[in-house]
Amino acid sequence: MKKIFSLCLLTVSFAMITSCDHNFDDINTSKTGVTAIDPGLLLNNAVINSSPGGVSTGTATTDLTYEMAIVQQMITSNSGVTVGGNFNQVNIGNTPLTWTNYFQNVIRYTQDVITKTASDATRANLYNMARIIQANAFMILTDTYGNVPYTEAGKGYTNQIFFPKYDTQESIYPQIIDELTDATASLDPAGKIETSDVLYGGDIAKWKKFGYSILMRAGMHLSQVDAAKAQATVSAAFTGGVITSNADNAIIKHDANFNNGVGNIVNGTEAANFYLAEPFVNALKNTSDPRLSAIAVRYVGATSGPGQVPGVATTAPGNQYGMPMGSDDGSAQNAAVAAGLGSRYAYSQADRNRILKRTSPMFIVSASQMNLLLAEAAARGWIPGGNAAASTFFTAGIKADMDKMATYDPGSAISAGDRDTYATANPLDVSTFDASLQQISYQYWIASFLDGPEAWANFRRTGYPVLAPNPYPGKSVTFITRITYPPSEILVNSKNVQDAISQMGGDNLDTKVWWDK
Amino acid sequence: MSKLYLFTGIFVLICYRAMPQHGEIYASNRQQPPDISVQSYSLKHGLSQLQKMFDVSIAYKDEWVKDKIVQVPLNFPSVEKALDAMLQNTGLKYEKAGNRFYIIFEKKQHQSTYNYSSTAPLVLNASSSSGDFATPDLTTVSNEMTEPATITVTGHVTDESGADFPGINVIVKGTTIGSSTNSDGRYSIDVIDENSVLVFSFIGYGTQEIVVGSRTTIDVAMQPNVKSLDEVVVTALGIERSSKSLGYSTTKVTADQLAINRTPNIMNTLQGKVAGVNISSLGTGPGGSSKVRIRGQSSLGGLNSPLIVINGVPVDNTNFGTNQGNTAGDNSQGNRGGGASTDGGDGFSSINPDDVESMQILKGSTAAALYGSRAKDGVIMITTKTKGANKGVGVSYNMNFTDETPLDYTDYQYVYGQGENGIGPASPGALPNPTTGQWSFGPKIEPGMTQVLFNNVVVPYVAQKGIINKFYRHGTNLTNSVSFSSTTDKGGLNISVANLKSNGITPNNSFDRKTVNLGFGYDLSERLSIKGTMNYSNELNTNPPVVSDQDNSIPTSLYAMANTMPLDVLKANAYNAGGGEYIYSRFTNRTNPYWVLNEVKQNIRKDRLFGNFSVKYDIAKWLFVQVRAGQDFYTRDQDYINLPTGKASLNGGSIASSVAGFVNGVYTQDARRFRETNVDFLITATKDFGNFGLNVNVGGNQMRKRLDLNSVQVTDFVVKGVYTVQNGRAKDPIYTMTDQAVNSLYGMAEVNYKKFLYLNATFREDWFSTLAPGRRSIPYPSVSASYVFSESFAAPRWLNFGKFRAAYAKVGSDSDVAPYSQSLFYGTTANLFAGQPVAVMSSLAVPNAHLSPMNVAETELGLELKTFNSRVNLDLAVYQKITTDQIVNAQISDGSGFTSTKINNGQSRNRGVELMLNIVPVQTTNFQWDFTFTGAYNITKCLSLTSSNPGENITVGTHVFNGFVQQIVGQELGQIVGYGYRRDDGSVNPDHKGQIVYGSNGVALPTTKLIPFGSALPKWVGGFNNSFSYKGIVASVLIDFKLGGKVLSGTNFNAYRHGLSKETLVGREGGTNGEGAVVGVGVDVNSNVNTAVASAENFYSVVRGAGLIEPVIYNAGYWKLRQITIGYDFTKFFKSTSAIKGVRLSFVANNVLMLKKWVPNIDPESFSYTSDNVVGLESPSVPTTRSIGFNLNVKI
Q: What are φ and ψ of residue B573, in 5° steps?
């Protein structure tokens, strides 16, 4: 008996008394997660999320509900979750999405890469690539919201800055320009080639073109507010060399695992809810633009989502009808009946089986956009060549955009003949600068279809194409010139955001960003 | 720490060394009582010494022995000799009234009443039963006769096991005539007439009153009194203690309470029955969770579920509940990916009520203090059977069957039918194949109208009422259990096998549970005993219903279904030609319920084995040591179709023009392995020193917990309708493993003074593997006191028992700091992008390496009274609980790149009162009415989040449709917030102040800021139970209530927005094409009277479009007739020689009647969320049911 007892006691005593936290460090070490990883793979995440239409449904949602609706290319007559630019109203479900995507998925990752590679000379190229990607994200953020956190942004983990202060857009732009200039110039073909890079496979020459292209955009955005700075920047970018060939396009090639966010939405719940807007369809139709049939499809006679079947689909440009701006479900239906379409389900859509597949690519920067900006720069005299160069760039821009269509889907390919016919029929009007600008901006508008943030930025900057105010009766503003701050910022970062709001003179959909004069 | 080691070590050593000596003392103690000298001492003291020495009870009246001094040596061979000597010359005599029971009385009384009885003529009034045997007071028996006796009644009294019961007091009610039973349990008494009532009483047993009638022989079987004054209760760690020594509140639940009225989840049985315990059964099917909250939500976090302890060892209570929109996160385990929001049950779902011998609920922190870091939410202590109730071999068979009827509380409008903006499938020129299926903003329903649905299906355009009952079926629960027990003097064993087959009301949902329980206990020798239990359960939960979500949720679609949509048409047209879902609503997420029934599948298989084994050794009579090892192990395999192939809301769903070669859908397989082991030891010493008694426990526990999860989610199928991992082209596999340990040392000491004043202290120190080195241990102390004042002075006769309690404890939580939460981790996505790996960060939360678990400091005061012969009993507790150092998922600016970080700054305060009032208004021979009220009031206030600035808030939950739950500093926890009506501020026109403001489109404008509508947590929870027993028929009626909480009703949200609510009848006529013309009563933005006209659909869709949820906020309170039971014990119809030892049949009805509620269209209880982070965010769940059934128990 005593033996059993002693045995029990001894066993337990030993077990307990060895140590009360014996082995705890080992127990509390994760066997499935790592605390360090190649920063190049982190940059990949940021790159993928830089796509304007988004991998995340977040950016795609603002692209669809706000930006493309604001520039009157794609709209919905639905209310509820899709409210945005269609009704010119604040939808607090959607307004934060650009903010959250870029800060969480791009700034957070690039900041981690930058921190890890800043003092690592062997990864200098990676460091500079991350800076370019980050600068692009900051530009989209500030173009969308105005003043945003910049100097203190993305430093929640590295510097424990949880409530970053906001920087004025005026101060952010020069810094973005400096970052892009320095990072792009510092990219070194002799340095380590980051072969895991998903954008260009680490190709330094292409990265340089990409960096200068973003720089070109940044410079152009300042054309109204600071012409001198704009000119200097655009000139520097031109000298550095921007993307002028489709082979150099910055493309996110979505696949079955990394879907095109916009494609996902229009192939999912909202399949029968988004339509091409009347101004966009009419513009293309009236100019016999071959891109209309590359982009659009119409389900003739469809009276419901299920009725949108391939058997009734037409891509014939003459048979495309855009949904009138400012429609709700009722007025869209009435308008469709009045137009003889039968139902609102019979309006033209961006083809979810071609240009907007789940696997369709998204362009961060395209050669057509750059050629058109170069046309504008030449017309302004900021780069050499004058109107002649402007005309050349202009035509090259149109052609590049038409050629780009095949990248979305072979079914969207535009023949060289149609392309050239259109290009020939639409030479740049160099009679006045304004005529040129209007024409260039119109083409930029088309070339930026699906690139909501840039299409919207260029529209605000140039005022072209001329779009009629959204006639929706319940709209709260005439034109949306800015997206309101996320409610979460107002809740948790209130002091800083209130400072920003007072600097900007309001937090409304029609508050203008600094460069929008 | 090292001191503790030393202390434990020394203690263990001393005990070990001391063992032989104490053994001898113990042995000698029995034979030779120590000579405590021949000094004079009080008679009272002498008697109390005799009681201890000979382990007997001696009853006397205090005033008789008071001031009497005796001087005889205290070393007698027998108690009789001692009493003879002591009572000499005192004028007192004694009588042996039973086995080890003696009664002292005055000599003259004995003489005067001698005539009436063959044995001692004593009356031991039942009201004198004040606890210990030492001081029952005797009523003075008058020596005057009132009337002559005419009838002599004799009889035999037995105890609950049928054995002779000596010493029972028998009196004639209302007279001074009395007698008591002899050593054979026989009595004889003379009564006056046939109307006389005999009262049989004995301490600890229920008093029985029997009318004599024409009988001269009355046999009585005494039953132990369940309201016994001093019961043994199982406390923390399985330590058994006398209830009067406890300085805190606990509630015991008996096996009967669990067995007769059954629910698949054992806890749901106790709704409304235990003061301070708020139980919600959820509308998630029979395999679902039970939400149990003791003394309210204690922390800001979402899971405040109690610890489950079975036979002294904790087991896992991981919750697999439904918690969409739980943005703050907690330890609940949700399904992966959308579309499969189902409730996979909790730790209680594996427990078979048949195996439960008793359940003890430790409510406060002090009660649970010995569980230290696991004690913050109270403890449900379950003791399972280890032997039979009676000696010998017993077989018991129990069958329980209940039928469940779905309850439909909808009260919708049936004036206007399916359609939108006044246009429906019945309108002239209406579109073919309408897709308005979820909207009821169509034309007015007139006789003779027809509608064309789907592909030219022509049916009458008539209201479809009662679709809830048409769709759902009757549910059934059938439990069969057999148990075998063997019981001897040395111990026993109990084996039970049970099978539960439960069919949910959702037509494809079932829950099967097979359990095998083995319990045994055996005394190997006088000192060494072993005890063990093993419980195996095999659970299969088939198709737990998807609830509260947009996709795949049958309730969501059904409760918002257009009111003219016939279910049979919906059923017949569930599929399109391609085999996908045929769209019936443009709101494609609202899946056709019949399609869901066929296509959305889920299986959860769980094999769980838990149990423990303990060895106890009595070193001395006053000292024992126990070593125990327990394990809870389960594997849980789950596979679910998140979104079936061909689902309309998915890309390429029923839109035929999908990408070639792509088959949509999402399918997931999870496999979990969980193991928790606990090894502990306990050394217990109990000894009395004069007036003082001491009880000391020292122990330690080592806990280790590991969870492995393998999960694969696949999409992009090759073949439609084939749900295998292989068939999915895109695969997203996950493997995670967490491992954690907590080591503990603890001790408890209890000192009592004369067994009426008790002081208790406990101390526990826990070491956590999850905390940062250097700050890994946290102490958890408690102190409590119990003062049984009824024993400390001569209490008035009506007061049988009175106790005052006071307690304070500090406890904590072991689950706040997750393993590995000190670092930021990286991983890679499951698939390459452009042929390259993509890295991800594990979390959007900035890690904090210096977190520590929260602390709960609770103060509790209590009062227990048993009065008027235990016919009016009260148990009252008040408490205050301050929970500090709570980890707040502090939302930070997205601009930081992250969304949150965790900080130890949260503070909340619970204050509450618990009351149990038990009254026995009627107690006659054949009839007893027992009334019990249990009620609790609790308010939990948020004192601090990241700061203590009033108004600071965090959003912890988001409603699937609209609205939030926030914790707001300075307010009650669980605030439902959202946008309300914007009100005129009166600055332009003071008369318009407070009026609703409408926009230029005639639709109400939302407030510019989120506003709180009140707390969703109930303040008052309780029930009234009336039980009646009449000649063997036992019946009970329970009415329960929950009051004081708010609800954001998602069902009403949809009913409003889709035109089903009766409120939406306003303004349906007029407008273009009959879209309606509503002019809201209020003002416009310029404070002019609103004249803007809105279409009905636009007007009522404001809840969705603008997120204006004010119209669908309600009072969530209710009063319900919860339960009716009727039972009859047929045992008396069987001869005692029969093989059948007992037959009992009970009928049960549950959720009988809604007496009062404030929210329309739903049962306020129809919730599906287990987490407090989404409390009050109602969203359509499986309807609640009324269950009617019976329970048959046969003992052989």
A: -115, 35
